[in-house]
Design a protein that fits this description.
This protein starts with 11 loop residues before the first helix and ends with a helix. Helices cover 12% and strands 24% of the residues. Among the domains are: 19-122, no CATH class; 288-440, Ribonuclease Inhibitor (Leucine-rich repeat, LRR (right-handed beta-alpha superhelix), Alpha-Beta Horseshoe). It is an alpha/beta fold. It has an 18-stranded mixed beta sheet, covered by helices on one side. It has a three-stranded parallel beta sheet with strand order 14-16-18, with no helix packed on it.
């Protein structure tokens, strides 16, 4: 635990007249490494600033109440920048690189108390062996266009958080080793293409996983029982049954997969968000037991008929778009549903129960010819009807709070449509008078 003290440093004006070691004073055992680090990074020493600050790192309980030094040119211009924090004893505990072409790991490895390391916008191709950084908790390597080899992260016993997104989108080399990362809780590598996730088999404390992968199964995650959030892209993924062991899972996104069917078992009652998309999925999974579900998105699938979405008391957002769906029925007992998107598919017919909370409905780019059931949407305010086969909007006036109807040239001008829109206008004026009339008299 880092003692909560604030170090007192020389002012900038005094520091600029002092020796370099005084201006950037770290623990004596690390001073030579720091001097070499600054020099190697090409930092302009005349732009040094220093001061005390409090910084919370992610969700840690520990705070860095430290002397903080900034070494920078203009980061927005792509010039080298370096952020350094020390603990009260002077040991470097945080190191952040921006636009340093080749970070000097020989010096970095001399900071034995380092807890947070961030490297961005470098020409780094691989992370070297950093296993000697025993106290490292947070590692972020992002926006490094050439980085494809992460094998150096092995054997970091205290590493909790890894961020590796925004690097090269080539195949990433990660093999073995995570069995030696016993504290790992979050692993982000969304823009990666990881050939094999078997290296995660022993990550028993993993809670959040966001990756791109090549594997066909999630079996290596079957013992990740603390998992709370999964976001995976994989053209080869066919088997996601391992999720059914994850009782704490509250968010699941499986995108760009090869999944044809998905079983969501009884253990997943804590699931609040489910997103399935861009896959050959042929039917909606059984979800009626997901009583906590708040957001459901199924898009870009081969599903032809949808009739299993009902009795979800917490659902507020439902996206059913870009599927092969012609019929959607039995949308009922969804008391909190506010947003319903049915666009961009060959939909011909929909049927719902009363949706008392619905505010927005999108039927654009469908084959709907007749608008029905608007008496079931008493609080609807926004309707989208771009590029449909609808010729008459008669019936939408039954949604008395409807204010915005967005259409295009596919809706013909007609006396009937004009009459409906006039009725809507009068409804708005009436509601306005009912609400504010007493203030206008």
């Amino acid at each position: 635990m880092i003692t909560r003290l604030v170090l007192v440093f020389f002012s900038l004006s005094l520091a600029l007249t002092s020796a370099y070691a005084e201006r950037l004073k770290v623990h004596p055992s690390e001073q030579a490494a720091m001097d070499a680090l600054i020099q190697g990074a090409g930092i302009d020493e005349s732009l040094v600033s220093s001061g005390g600050s409090e910084r919370q790192i992610h969700e840690f309980d520990e705070y860095f109440l430290t002397g903080t030094r900034y070494f920078y040119d203009d980061v927005s211009s792509g010039q080298p920048a370096l952020y350094v924090s020390t603990n009260p004893d002077g040991h470097v505990v945080r190191l952040e690189y921006d636009y340093v072409k080749y970070p000097d790991f020989e010096q970095i490895l001399k900071f034995k108390k380092l807890r947070m390391l961030i490297i961005r916008f470098s020409s780094l191709e691989k992370i070297p062996d950093i296993s000697s950084l025993n106290e490292l908790m947070y590692l972020r390597v992002a926006v490094n266009d050439k980085l494809i080899d992460f094998n150096g992260i092995n054997n970091l016993s205290n590493l909790k958080f890894f961020r590796g997104s925004g690097n090269s989108q080539s195949e990433v080399k990660i093999v073995g080793g995570v069995k030696n990362l016993p504290s790992l809780e979050e692993f982000y590598c969304e823009t990666c293409v990881i050939p094999d996730i078997s290296f995660l088999e022993s990550a028993k404390n993993l809670k959040i996983l966001k990756i791109g992968m090549l594997g066909s199964t999630l079996d290596p995650l079957k013992d990740a029982k603390k998992m709370e959030e999964i976001k995976i892209r994989s053209d080869n993924l066919k088997d996601a049954s391992a999720i059914n062991n994850m009782k704490n899972l509250n968010s699941l996104m499986l995108w760009d997969t090869n999944i044809e069917s998905l079983d969501i078992g009884p253990n997943l009652t804590n699931l609040k968000e489910l997103r399935l998309g861009n896959s050959p999925l042929k039917s909606i999974p059984q979800i009626s037991h997901l009583r906590a579900l708040e957001s459901l998105s199924i898009a870009g699938t081969n599903i032809r008929n949808i009739d299993k979405i009902h009795d979800l008391p917490e659902l507020t957002r439902l996206v059913l778009t870009r599927n092969n769906t012609k019929r959607i029925v039995n949308l009922k007992n969804l008391p909190k549903l506010k947003e319903l998107y049915l666009a961009d598919q060959p939909l011909e017919y929909y049927e719902t129960g009363v949706l008392p909370s619905l505010k927005e409905l999108d039927l654009s780019k469908t084959n709907i010819k007749k608008l029905t059931g608007f008496e079931n949407f008493p609080n609807l305010t926004n309707l989208k009807l771009y590029d449909t086969k609808v010729k008459s909007v008669r019936g939408i006036e039954k949604s008395e709070h409807l204010e915005y109807v967005q259409t295009d040239h596919t809706l013909p001008d007609s006396a009937e449509n004009d009459a409906v829109f006039q009725e809507m206008k009068e409804n708005r004026q009436r509601r306005f008078r009912e609400r504010f009339g007493k203030y206008l008299d």
